[in-house]
Amino acid sequence: MRIKLLDEVERDLIDGFAFYERQSKGLGEYCFDSIFADMESLSLHAGIHGSVLRLSSASGQTIPLCRLL
After folding, report:
1. For FRET with 55, which of 9, 16, 23, 24 sits at 20 to 30 Å CA-CA?
2. Cβ-Cβ contacts under 8 Å for 17 (sequence gap 6 or more)
3. Which residues contact 63 (CB under 8 A, 6 or more apart)?
4. How far apart are CA 62 and CA 3, in angstroms?
5. Segments forming the whole domain that contains residue 43
6. 3 in a domain, yes or no?
7. pLDDT band at 25, cuts 50/70/90?
8. 62 pLDDT exceeds 80?
9. Is 17 exposed, middle or buried (0-12, 13-18, 19+ CB in 10 A)?
10. How far is CA 17 from CA 7, 23, 29, 44, 52, in A?
11. Residue 64 covered by a domain
12. pLDDT tens-digit series, residues 40-61
């Protein structure tokens, strides 16, 4: 399965990294690692998640407000 990120996601990832790094050094990297692990999980388990517009969709596990499409 291929994961497609919307154009807006790149900027959100950069902003999120900066936000979490301001909270605590290393937290931004942890956030990135968590998001990419969730994307890998979505890729590995495609088809068992709900779908939005025929795309697999799942909430992030570590950062639950993050929505992965």
Report:
1. 16
2. 28, 29, 31, 32
3. 31, 34, 35, 38
4. 19
5. 8-68
6. no
7. very high
8. no
9. middle
10. 17, 10, 7, 25, 26
11. yes
12. 877 776 666 566 666 655 555 5
